[in-house]
């Protein structure tokens, strides 16, 4: 594997029962126009993912393989195992059933290198048939110069994202972060770990640049944690745990005002989760992202 040229990206891919999706995720890295990346595939189920990828015709010197040594230890533990193998200046998570658009690293890496972290819009896609469900921020607003509250235009195709606006989102975001800023992932938080990680990053960098184009494809897959029948219950338990941590050790968030804002946002997320659980029980949606799409489509205008 080539050494870091000063702005390379270690992409950490936790793999748990990912034999049928890992090739798609890694192929999206091979298709990147930005060549200076390292992929760290972390087995969290004892599977040999090097062999899985080779069987799919994928082999590349930029691929690194490691494991948690356990089965089902969770995405945070797997990402931390991958972080220990990261050799590049920047770090980016990629779920094993998701994919990057070809220009993602080329667009985000320079921004993250300069400002500590960077993000992009996210496309939500149903995995079974590839149907688009939603985007994190409605991209149709941007060409007209309209931006959601809290997003500040900062240049062609980019805006600035702050913690308050991030906390209003309900679609996962996947920051590219400079490795010296990466806090690691909270292994005691097994459901909304991405939210906690991102808030800890925002606590360190303040506002960060957001590319308005959706360059991360978040796949909603049957059988995944977020699509499981008990996802609402698991989310509620996670929110309670995070609130307890905020009231206790502060969850490694230095800014007291941000801790307070985070706790308030979790209250709103719990209310939204309760509405989702009711809709799911009534058979109106199959998972949380479908619930959000239904809510968006039912709004007047």
UniProtKB/TrEMBL annotation:
Domain Glycosyltransferase 2-like: 10-128
Domain of life: Bacteria
Keyword Transferase: yes
CDD domains assigned to the protein according to its UniProt record, in alphabetical order: Glyco_tranf_GTA_type
InterPro entries linked to this entry: Glyco_trans_2-like, Glycosyltransf_2, Nucleotide-diphossugar_trans
Keywords: Transferase
Database matches in SUPFAM superfamilies: Nucleotide-diphospho-sugar transferases
Gene Ontology MF term list: transferase activity
PANTHER family, A to Z: GLYCOSYLTRANSFERASE (PTHR43685), GLYCOSYLTRANSFERASE 2-LIKE DOMAIN-CONTAINING PROTEIN (PTHR43685:SF2)
Name of the featured protein: Glycosyltransferase involved in cell wall biosynthesis
Native source organism of the sequence: Azospirillum brasilense
Taxon lineage: Bacteria, Pseudomonadati, Pseudomonadota, Alphaproteobacteria, Rhodospirillales
């Amino acid at each position: 594997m080539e050494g870091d040229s000063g702005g390379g990206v270690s992409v950490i891919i936790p793999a748990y029962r990912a034999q049928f999706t890992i090739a798609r995720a890694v192929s999206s890295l091979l298709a990147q126009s930005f060549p200076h990346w390292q992929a760290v595939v972390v087995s969290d189920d004892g599977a040999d993912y090097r062999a899985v990828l080779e069987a799919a015709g994928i082999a590349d010197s930029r691929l690194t393989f490691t494991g948690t040594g356990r089965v089902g230890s969770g995405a945070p533990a797997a990402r931390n195992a991958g972080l220990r193998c990261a050799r590049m200046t920047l770090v980016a998570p990629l779920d094993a059933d998701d994919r990057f658009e070809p220009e993602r690293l080329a667009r985000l890496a320079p921004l993250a290198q300069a400002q500590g972290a960077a993000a992009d819009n996210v496309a939500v896609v149903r995995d079974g048939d590839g149907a688009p469900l939603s985007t994190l921020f409605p991209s149709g607003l941007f060409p007209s110069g309209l931006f959601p509250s809290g997003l500040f235009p900062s240049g062609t195709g980019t805006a600035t994202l702050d913690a308050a606006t991030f906390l209003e989102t309900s679609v996962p975001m996947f920051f590219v972060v400079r490795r010296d800023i990466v806090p690691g992932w909270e292994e005691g938080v097994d459901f909304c770990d991405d939210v906690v990680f991102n808030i800890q990053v925002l606590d360190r960098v303040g506002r960060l640049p957001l590319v308005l184009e959706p360059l991360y494809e978040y796949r909603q897959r049957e059988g995944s944690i977020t699509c499981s029948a008990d996802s609402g219950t698991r989310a509620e338990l996670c929110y309670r745990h995070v609130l307890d941590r905020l009231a206790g050790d502060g969850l490694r968030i230095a800014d007291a005002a941000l801790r307070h804002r985070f706790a308030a946002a979790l209250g709103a997320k719990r209310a939204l989760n309760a509405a989702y659980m009711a809709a799911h029980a009534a058979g109106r949606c199959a998972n949380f992202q479908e619930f959000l799409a239904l809510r968006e489509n039912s709004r007047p205008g």
